[in-house]
Structures are given as C-alpha cells and as structure tokens.
Amino acid sequence: ARMAGPPARTAPGSRQQVQGGESRAQPASGAPPARETRAPFRFDYERFRRSLRHPVRGGRTGEDPETRARRMKIKEMMKFAWDNYKQYALGKNELRPLTRNGHIGNMFGGLRGATVIDALDTLYIMELEQEFQEAKQWVEKSFDLNVNGEASLFEVNIRYIGGLLATYYLTGEEVFRSKALELGEKLLPAFNTPTGIPRGVINLGRQGTAFPHGMSWSWGWASAGSSILAEFGTLHLEFLHLSELSGNPVLVCALSQVMNIRRVLSRVEKPQGLYPNFLSPVTGSWVQHHVSIGGLGDSFYEYLIKSWLMSDKRDSEARKMYDDALEAIEKHLVKKSAGGLTYIAEWRGGILDHKMGHLACFSGGMIALGAQHGAEQRRQRHMELAAEITSTCHESYTRSDTKLGPEAFRFDAGSEATATRLSERYYILRPEVVESYMYLWRLTHDPKYRHWGWEVVQALEKHCRVEAGFSGIRDVYTTTPTHDNMQQSFFLAETLKYLYLLFCEDDVLSLEDWVFNTEAHPLPINHTDLKA
Ligand code: DMJ
C-alpha cells in the first residue's frame, strides 16, 4: 500500500454520509469541518484492488470467434478515432475530422484536452497500451488547470473529474488522482448559493481565498438563472469519490453540500410526484413545470439508482427517491403508441408532449439496472419496461435510412418513433441507445442486443467514418448525409466503450464492481472501507 493524500488530515467518515440520509447539510456558506490531527489520511489502493471481485479487464476466455472479431473491430475504431485526434487536434477539446483541426468550444472554461481525458479509460480497457501512454503523457506534461473562463459545472464534473477518477481507480497512477482532486476543489464556489443548490456555470479562474473559495463572481445571474435538475443532480458519484480519495476536509464538506441537494428536493412539492427540470438556486422552488427523462432531467434519475448501487446498496434514501420518481414516471409519462411501441413522454405543465429524445434512450439501461433488486413482480414489470423502451429506441434507428437514430422522435400525427421536425433529424455520435443495449445484454443475455449493437457499428462505419476520424451527421433519413465535422469526446468515452463491452465477457468492468458515471467512466462500488 502506498501513501497518498495530504499529510496530517483525517477525513470524517464520508461513507456514513451516504447511508440513509444521516448527514446534516452544511450551510451553503459554512465553515470547513474542524481539522483533526489524529492520523495521516491515506487511500489504500492495493487494498482497493484486492476488494474487487473481478480483474478490471476480465479474466475469462472461451468466447466464440465472431464475438472476438467484432470486439476487435470496435477496438480498431477507437484506435482510429484516437490516432486522428492525436494527429490533428491533440490538446484541443475535440477533433474536427473534415477540416482536420481541433475544436475548443466554450463548455470547459479554458480547460483543454476533453477528448484525452474522456478517452483515457477506454484506451486502457481496450488494452491500447501505446495510445494510453500517449494520453497519460499529455496529462502529465500539458494538462493545465490554471485556466480562466466560464465552465459548465456538469460537463467538467462528468467528463474531466469522472475520467480522471476512473483512470486512477483502474491504474493506481497518482497523476490522475491529484489532478482530479485539484480540479474538484476549483468547482466548489458553485455551491455558494442561498439554497446550496449549485449554479450551472462557474468561473474556474477567479478563486477567492475564503472557504470554500469565497463568493468570487458576480451575482447577476441569481435573479434570472435557474439550475437544471440533470446538472445539479449529477454530482454525487464523483463527489463521493473525491471525498473518499482526498481526506481533504474541503472536499468532504463538498460532499455534504451535494447531499444537501436531496434535502432541498425532498422539501419542495413535486407535481404528481414528478421532478420538474428547473429549480431556482435562490428560492429552492421550481421555475418551470417541464418534466423529462431525456435532456435536462435524465442523469438526475440515473444518479439516484447508481448512488444506491455505489454504496453497496446502503444508501436507502437514494433508492427510495429513485423508486418514487420511477413510480410517478410510470404512472404519468409511460405511454404506448397506436403501433404498440412503449415510450416515455415529456410533460409540460400537465400536458404531455409525445416525444422522446435520443438522450432519453439511456433509460432502458437504467430501468433494467434498477430492476435487479426488489420484489419479484416489480422486477419483472421493470425488466419488461426496460426491454420495451430499448426496443422502441432500436425502432428509431431501424426506421431511418442510415440505421442511426435521430436526436428526437415523436409519436403523434401518425408518426411512430421517427423525427417529424427537420431540426431533430441529426445524429451526433451519441451513446444512449448502445448504452441500453449493453446493460440489457449483461442482464438478460438475449443475443438480439449484440445483434442490434453490431448494426450500429456497421452504420457508424458507413455513414460517420470519414478519412480523418468519425463525424456526426445532419440527417439520418438520407443515405448520403452531410457531416457535422465534429468527433465528440463522448464518442470515445461512451459510444465506443459501451459497444466494446457489449462484445466482452461480463467480467470486464463487471457490474458487480463498477458503476458507470453518466459519461461512462467506471467508478468502483464501495465494497469495503478503504481508508487507512
Ligand atoms: C454525455 O456527455 C453524457 O452521457 C450526458 O449525460 C448526456 N449527453 C452526452 C452524450 O449524449
């Protein structure tokens, strides 16, 4: 075991803070917990590795040659995506494969290398050793955290913090742990709001000196701004691990601020048990009554069930919130089309919008994952629901000319699982449909999920592969689509990883050991207390 973490600080037991809502929320601008000087904190990495039930890259053999060949093909796609990013855009956030240059964008507040960080754990899992070393070297030599600019708290958390944490847990390499902790601290001013519900945008450059960093930005946003459910609800998994790995009271305190979000949500009245997507971080009340399991809502639900799984099923508060939310969704939003397709509608102030976004297609996998526990009748009902939704999302792919799915599809005016608006016909290499195939495969072993996944591989090769990488397309309903010139970082983090895992044995990143964050970065389940 090796020493890691700052000296002479002992973290209060962060794990107990996730069990059954025992913790007390810190006031939004509260002082840090008093420092204790008992024993130096260290995270026992070797012990953590011994606590895993399966080797991280699997140990089983004996698969059929076709499955192996398909997996190798997906590995080749990852190498191709990485090599082109490296050649034309290393250090930028994404590759623009048609113009062969890099894209920076404005989501990450001056941070660079989103594709490097998002790709790390996929390269590692696929045993692309040389490519992993190239990515690691970039992190060691060029990943600069002293940046200035407005960043999305959500995007930085799921991609950068998630990617760094996952790679640390997979490899034990200190550089990933220390970068994750350093970046994590920079996110803390986001919680300085009257309710403690974080704001969505944070300036990474302007850090104050007072704990957690002072109110160092303009409050002009407060009157107009609202926080988004899927953004402030998608912090728990990463902040739990930041706290676990650091022993730093500031990050331990941050975890209790994340826990406080549940308190605020439990107090506010929920229309018919549903969670609207916009909440004021100033008043703690809903700003609009728009409910969606797709964009703006999605990963809030995902993180409830995954928080429970990550706590080794001890975080009963999260489980209950998930169960109650899913019950309301089943009751009010789950519908069947005239043609017999099950879908999850959106809800706007009591009126249903019969539309599913591509983003909402992750819910097949989530519901299947949540169905693995609980009473038999309910399990069965939820597995059926998960399979039906996944099948509907598959329909949205098969009904297009490219065999890739649109950004949103509708069930009205005679349409069934197809986009009816020009603006919703694009596909940007998103993962949610193959994500559900992967979970449903692991949980049922029905071969149709591998079959469907292979259809996606072929469609990606045919329509999205260009000379210098992979690109999104502007219209899935034409066999000669134009490309959007963007290789999204989540294509390497998620789409290719989930496809690869679909053709792996179940012990590769086993669901008994790992929970995937919403960017597909694997974070370990807490089997044992590893603080020494
Ligand atoms: C990813 O960044 C994450 O999966 C997020 O939760 C939703 N959107 C993209 C992929 O579509």
From TrEMBL:
Its EC number is 3.2.1.-. One of its GO terms (molecular function) is calcium ion binding. Residues 1-42 are annotated as: Disordered. GO terms for cellular component: endoplasmic reticulum; extracellular exosome; Golgi membrane. It is a single-pass type II membrane protein. Pathway: Protein modification; protein glycosylation. It catalyses: N(4)-(alpha-D-Man-(1->2)-alpha-D-Man-(1->2)-alpha-D-Man-(1->3)-[alpha-D-Man-(1->2)-alpha-D-Man-(1->3)-[alpha-D-Man-(1->2)-alpha-D-Man-(1->6)]-alpha-D-Man-(1->6)]-beta-D-Man-(1->4)-beta-D-GlcNAc-(1->4)-beta-D-GlcNAc)-L-asparaginyl-[protein] (N-glucan mannose isomer 9A1,2,3B1,2,3) + 4 H2O = N(4)-(alpha-D-Man-(1->3)-[alpha-D-Man-(1->3)-[alpha-D-Man-(1->6)]-alpha-D-Man-(1->6)]-beta-D-Man-(1->4)-beta-D-GlcNAc-(1->4)-beta-D-GlcNAc)-L-asparaginyl-[protein] (N-glucan mannose isomer 5A1,2) + 4 beta-D-mannose; N(4)-(alpha-D-Man-(1->2)-alpha-D-Man-(1->2)-alpha-D-Man-(1->3)-[alpha-D-Man-(1->3)-[alpha-D-Man-(1->2)-alpha-D-Man-(1->6)]-alpha-D-Man-(1->6)]-beta-D-Man-(1->4)-beta-D-GlcNAc-(1->4)-beta-D-GlcNAc)-L-asparaginyl-[protein] (N-glucan mannose isomer 8A1,2,3B1,3) + 3 H2O = N(4)-(alpha-D-Man-(1->3)-[alpha-D-Man-(1->3)-[alpha-D-Man-(1->6)]-alpha-D-Man-(1->6)]-beta-D-Man-(1->4)-beta-D-GlcNAc-(1->4)-beta-D-GlcNAc)-L-asparaginyl-[protein] (N-glucan mannose isomer 5A1,2) + 3 beta-D-mannose. Ca(2+) binds at T518. The active site is at E155 (proton donor), D298, E407 (proton donor), E432. GO terms for biological process: carbohydrate metabolic process. It is found in: Endomembrane system. Belongs to the glycosyl hydrolase 47 family. Involved in the maturation of Asn-linked oligosaccharides. Progressively trim alpha-1,2-linked mannose residues from Man(9)GlcNAc(2) to produce Man(5)GlcNAc(2). This is alpha-1,2-Mannosidase. It comes from Irena cyanogastra (Philippine fairy-bluebird).
